[in-house]
Design goal:
Length: 517
């Protein structure tokens, strides 16, 4: 888990690198915006949007500095981790909102620039109420936008060229999705660390809910990224392929096929080992696509575009596409206590018998020492403690004694209770919030086994863990990629082994299955 959290700084840096590489928008530091293209200074909407973008950038910079300050306080005062973690999450939510707003602004800014370029490819543009002026397309714009070169407009039909320009405009949408995915991934790493350090079950549950919510948000973002990126990829690949075919550059197309095949093989090899296969697919294919664009630019002797794309390729290569999954192994906050007896009253009017707590995670055994139609006084239970009660579905008052981690402990307490005069105490067990009365189950009862799915072979560490935690349990292969360990009479023992195996082999599916004996 520590390694996951350490990705934070790296991931945020990666997100900014993606933004700079693909959006081609540098940081704005001047107080007054400057037109990025000579000739658009008099476009009121364009200049207003640049000004809004500048203000949003300043807000983002300020918020990023605030996050850094809270992190510094967190390092200096770990005891206030919950407070600082909440502050960091709130600040990062603000950053997400700012970046979303910037993405929409930049999309419109680029659209205005593209419209200007298309209207000036022939060297002139009419101004409002002015004579026609001759304006040259700036080299800076050509360098970072391959698709604006006239050869594509000339080689493609009107509809195909419009689709290519649309794909270029949507690059920013993909960048926004990527940045948000990366930021949410980093936030999940923070939450996983906070969950592991949570002092109470209530705190852990709240953190876990936020973790799950971010996971759901990333699933939606991944769907949006997939749809957007496939649109971009398909339209650009078609347009560039058509131009290369007309230019007789078959070897360029063959090399691109090899690049894409290699990207597909790498993605397949990483199946189950990365946080988002959609994000990994985007980064792998985006690298191949930018390399292809640079090659296309070189084949068409568009040196400025080629140099720009090679710079983008270098930035993309620095982004790690193998981000491991962030997982939370649910913790059990169960408090166990042995059965004891006291001659002095342990429960009084001021300190009544408490209601039994049902834990959503983990296994706990108790002794059912009496079921009554009405509430009973503590003296009924012969000085036994700890005691608790629950009212069942029939409205009966059920009283329980002790809280044990294993069935063996419960069996030993059962003998003690009988020796103390309890007539028919029964063993009950709660597993992940579900209760069963073991004393009323037919002979043979239930058993569990641990299933390890997705492994061709087991590592030495896994085998050692099975020997240490499942002494006497049989390990066997029952399928090409399925191993089972068991049987276990005690669900808690199977759960403990499963938790240890998940820690050792996070990429494998480990589950506990109930077996009828």
């Amino acid at each position: 888990m520590v390694e996951v959290i350490r990705y934070k700084a790296k991931i945020l840096g990666a997100g900014l690198a993606v933004w700079c590489a693909l959006a081609a928008v540098g940081p704005l530091r001047a107080q007054q915006p400057e037109a990025r293209i000579a000739g658009l200074e008099r476009n009121e909407e364009y200049m207003r949007l640049l000004g809004e973008d500048l203000r949003l950038q300043q807000r983002e910079d300020s918020t990023v500095r605030a996050v850094a300050e809270v992190r510094r306080r967190l390092r200096e005062n770990p005891a206030e981790q919950q407070l600082h973690a909440a502050q960091i999450l709130e600040l990062e939510n603000r950053i997400f909102e700012i970046r979303n707003a910037k993405g929409r602004l930049i999309d419109r800014i680029n659209a205005i620039e593209q419209e200007w370029v298309l209207s000036n490819l022939n060297g002139s543009t009419p101004g409002r109420g002015e004579a026609t002026a001759t304006v040259a397309v700036p080299d800076s714009l050509k360098r970072r936008n391959l698709v604006f070169n006239g050869c594509f407009r000339d080689a493609l039909g009107v509809d195909d060229y419009a689709a290519l320009l649309s794909a270029q405009r949507r690059e920013l949408e993909a960048v926004d999705y990527v940045n948000r995915l990366l930021a949410n991934y980093a936030a999940q790493g923070e939450l996983a660390g906070a969950y592991a350090a949570a002092a109470t079950e209530e705190e852990a549950v709240e953190i876990h809910e936020r973790f799950v919510a971010l996971g759901g948000l990333n699933d939606a973002l991944a769907d949006s990224l997939s749809a957007t990126w496939n649109y971009i990829f398909d339209n650009k690949s078609y347009a560039y392929g058509l131009v290369m075919e007309k230019a007789g550059c078959e070897e360029v197309l063959a090399r691109q096929e090899e690049r894409l095949a290699e990207a597909a093989r790498e993605l397949s090899a990483l199946h189950g080992e990365v946080a988002s296969e959609v994000l990994t697919d985007y980064l792998l294919r985006k690298r191949a696509s930018v390399d292809f664009e640079a090659t296309v630019a070189g084949a068409l002797t568009l040196d400025a575009a080629r140099d720009s794309l090679e710079g983008v390729a270098a930035q993309l290569a620095a982004i790690d596409h193998r981000l491991p999954p962030v997982r939370i192994v649910e913790r059990s906050f169960i408090v166990y206590d042995s059965l004891a007896f006291s001659p002095a009253p342990r429960y009084t009017y001021q300190n009544p018998i408490p209601e039994c707590r049902v834990y959503s995670v983990g296994t706990i055994y108790r002794l059912l020492v009496g079921t009554y139609a009405t509430k009973r006084a503590a003296s009924t239970f012969r000085g036994a403690y700890p005691l608790c009660y629950r009212i069942d579905d029939d409205g009966k008052w059920c009283y329980y004694a002790g809280s044990f981690a294993t069935r063996d402990q419960a069996e030993a307490a059962l003998k003690t209770a009988k020796a103390r005069g309890f007539v028919r105490p029964e063993i009950v067990v709660w597993t992940d919030g579900q209760m069963r009365n073991l004393s009323r189950e037919p002979e043979g009862g239930q058993a569990w086994r641990v299933e390890i799915v997705g492994a061709e072979a087991l590592s030495d560490e896994v085998k050692a863990a099975i020997r240490d935690r499942a002494e006497g349990a049989e390990l066997s292969r029952v399928g090409q990629q399925l191993f089972v360990v068991g049987l276990f009479d005690d669900r808690s023992l199977a759960d403990a082994l499963a938790d240890e195996l998940r820690r050792l082999e996070g990429a494998l599916e480990i589950k506990v299955t109930e077996i009828a004996e």
